[in-house]
Amino acid sequence: MHNVIVTGASRGLGLAIATALAAQGYRVIGVARSASAALTAASRAASDSARGAIEYRACDLAELERIGPFVRDVRAEFGPIYGLVNNAGIGTAGVLGTMRDADIERLIRLNTLSPILMTKYVLRSMMSERQGRIVNISSIVAATGYTGLSVYSATKSSLIGFTRSLAREVGGLGITVNAIAPGFLDTEMTHELTASQRAQIARRSALGRMAEAVDVARSVEFLFGESGRNITGTVLTVDAGNTA
């Protein structure tokens, strides 16, 4: 059973990804600061299905010095790591001119530095096995922009550059590195939007609706599976045609 780390797995998109990968037979190590009732239920359901598994392990990814030891512990407990989904992040909004310095620093630490360090330590396992799949969760705002999300957009843009360069760096070792850029999904991160803003997003989309977390989760499945073996260094947009 291949081991896959999914960060931010306690709710929303991360939970959807963890659930989908477990259903495909992967052992998912779901990372979050604390467990949730939904994650516990998903872990139990995966166990009952006798296909994959979801194992919760706690780690506050904003504490960068903990990431290396955490990955070493996971590898010691479960064995080689086949996949990594860098999903954890925060969507703090704010006009740049009035945004607190501490909030800017927190966004960059969790959305940019944390996934880079997580990837660094997970790569060591993948390199020794000469195989692996890495998916970084970016956002359409990395390319399109959105009022009040300048710093968030910067962090998500950084993941795209990271993805493309790392794909070149490790491709010869049989490791693929891709990014997914979701549109505005119906998750907790978009609940700050007003009903009119959400309706406007849906109207602007080619399909007349917002994408869902399950759509992104299925895209991760595709990239992790045999069909994705020759796809690397790409950005897959899942936004119901919002940027079409």
**Largest sheet entry:** 7 strands, parallel
Task: State the total count of DSSP E strands.
Answer: 7
Instruction: Give me the side-by-side strand order of the main sheet.
Output: 3-2-1-4-5-6-7
Number of helices: 8
Tell me the structural class. Answer: alpha/beta
Basic shape: globular
Element string (H = helix, E = strand): EHEHEHEHEHHEHHE
> Ends: how far apart?
38 Å
Residues in β-strands, percent: 15-25%
Radius of gyration: 17 Å
What low-confidence regions span 5 or more consecutive residues with pLDDT below 50?
none
Query: Roughly what percent helix?
Result: 40-55%
Mean pLDDT: 94
Explained architecture:
It contains eight helices and seven strands. By secondary structure, the chain is of the alpha/beta class. It has a seven-stranded parallel sheet with strand order 3-2-1-4-5-6-7, with helices on both faces. The chain starts with a strand and ends in a 6-residue tail after the last strand. Helix 4 links the parallel strand 4 (81-86) and strand 5 (132-137). The protein is 46% helix and 17% strand. It has helices at residues 12-23, 37-49, 67-78, 101-129, 141-144, 150-170, 195-204, 213-224; strands at 3-7, 27-32, 53-58, 81-86, 132-137, 175-182, 235-238.
